[in-house]
Write a structure and sequence with these properties.
Blueprint lengths: L11 H11 L24 H16 L5 H19 L30 H16 L5 H17 L11 H22 L71 H14 L3 H9 L9 H16 L4 H29 L4 H8 L20 H17 L5 E3 L10 E3 L2 H14 L5 H19 L6
Antiparallel strand pairs: 1-2
Helix pairs in contact: 1-6, 2-3, 2-4, 2-5, 2-9, 3-4, 3-6, 3-9, 3-10, 4-5, 4-6, 8-13, 9-10, 9-12, 10-12, 10-14, 12-13, 12-14, 13-14
């Protein structure tokens, strides 16, 4: 029986694993592959996927260095590892190799090969989580090991030991690991792999341009700009970060009555007299790194809840996670490229210059990077569009993301309603102008449309 094939990966470790897979014995007549072992990936529950993404959210919150762009990148590779590892079990679907930038091919299983898709997904996600979170604590690395071992016991309905031979289990695990390793080889060349500190190796220290209306470090910490080169990373779906431009903000001016001045005055007035509801929105959608799973993780949490509530299949989860996370990941280079292109000052700087010299937003500190456009707006708009395509535009849902922080649950009538609230929350918090909120929404929707144009079906 033919075994796994590997097309021109050029990866020594992957080739060694491929040799190991080739050495696995095929099922014998004494242990025939039963009908249940060759089931479609849609015949299994989404539980193996949702369990792993729940752990990914925890690791994102607790691992140093996982700022929002870094977190979204990790989620995208996890989504790809899941989708591609169960793809041979979805005959009506096709690979994203050849559709994503610089990803020409991936491992594939021969048609006559019997694989168990929950086992392949379990191995792929465990391997990819280890590779994406190398700075996780020892305790969290142990959580990865424990979940990988325990899922076959916990999800007995999907891991039927009586129907799956040891050979099928070993072959499926090897395929999942091989898929994750192949994707990681590609990931190391995307420009984001070494962004764990303030600088990427081989890059000079970033110096922000100076001049009227230009961004400068903001109080209270006056921190260095976050990931100034992230906009130059290789995107997944977009041809480049410039593929989804934002409309330009109003021309900078300090003159009363101009469009820019009026936006600055609006931030000042709202932040000083925010209603209780507006304050709640601002704090609910803050999604600070190190305290929460970040804005991308917020939307990933919503998607995971919906998959569980709807008792989705493994095939449905794979398609939802890959599209959502590709959109979240590509939104950040597009947004960051625009941020550092316009390099627009933050409201706190403008208000201190023009309106009140000692003013600072009272709800939260201003993030350390340029204002235009709003990252929250872009990410939320992209996520809402993908989830609307997957679950329906008029789908209402309950958001449980921050229940353990005393902020939920909260109900929304649609994904768009939640995204609009998330976007406006940054204006209420005093850290974005209205044009930044609207510009981010334009970019996020563009990213989602390009991701949704991917060809998943035959």
């Amino acid at each position: 029986m033919k075994t796994l094939t590997l097309r021109r990966l050029g990866v020594h470790a992957a080739l060694l694993l491929c040799v190991a897979v080739s050495a696995l014995p095929a099922p014998t007549r004494a242990q025939p592959a039963t009908e249940t072992t060759v089931r479609h990936a849609g015949a299994y529950s989404a539980d193996v996927a949702t369990e792993w993404f729940a752990l990914a959210l925890l690791l994102t919150q607790q691992t140093p260095g996982f700022s929002p762009p870094v977190a979204a990148r990790a989620f995208a590779y996890l989504g790809l590892a899941l989708y591609e590892s169960v793809l041979p079990g979805m005959p009506e679907r096709i690979s994203l190799a050849g559709q994503l930038n610089e990803l020409s091919s991936l491992p594939w299983a021969q048609p006559d090969e019997v694989l168990h898709w929950p086992t392949a997904a379990n191995a792929a996600l465990a391997t990819m989580l280890r590779l994406m979170f190398p700075t996780a604590t020892a305790e969290n690395k142990a959580r990865i090991d424990l979940l990988e071992r325990n899922l076959p016991l916990k999800l007995a309905q999907d891991f039927d030991a009586g129907a799956i031979t040891p050979e099928i289990t070993n072959r499926s695990e090897s395929f999942g690991k091989l898929m994750a390793m192949a994707l990681m080889t590609w990931a190391r060349t995307d420009g984001g792999h070494e962004a764990w500190g303030p600088l990427r190796r081989g890059r000079e220290n970033y110096v922000a341009p100076s001049g009227a209306g230009q961004w400068s470090a903001t109080p209270p910490s006056f921190a260095a700009p976050l990931l100034p080169y992230w906009g130059g990373n290789r995107t997944f779906v977009l041809h480049s970060a410039e593929a989804c431009p934002a409309p330009p903000p109003p021309a900078y001016s300090e003159e009363p009555g101009t469009a820019f001045y009026e936006e600055g005055l609006e931030v000042y007035r709202i932040a000083n007299a925010a209603t209780q509801e507006q304050r709640q929105f601002a704090l609910y959608w803050a999604d600070d790194a190190g305290k929460t799973p970040t804005p991308a993780g917020h939307w990933l949490y919503i998607a995971t809840d919906l998959l569980q509530a709807r008792k989705a299949t493994l095939a449905q989860a794979a398609q939802t996670y890959v599209l959502l996370n590709l959109a979240l990941a590509d939104a950040f280079p597009a947004l960051w490229n625009t941020k550092y292109q316009f390099n627009l000052l933050r409201p706190v700087t403008y208000v201190q210059l023009v309106i009140e010299s000692n003013w600072v937003p009272t709800l939260m500190h201003t993030p350390p990077f340029p204002e235009y456009p709003s990252g929250h707006s872009g990410v939320s708009s992209a996520a809402a569009a993908v989830l609307a395509a997957r679950f329906g535009a008029s789908t209402g849902f309950i958001d449980n993301t921050h229940n353990d922080r005393g902020w939920g649950p909260r109900s929304f009538k649609s994904f768009r309603a939640a995204a609009d609230e998330a976007a406006l929350s940054r204006l209420y918090a005093g850290i974005h102008f209205r044009s930044g909120v609207e510009g981010g929404k334009v970019q996020g929707l563009c990213v989602a449309q390009k991701v949704l144009a991917l060809k998943l079906g035959r």
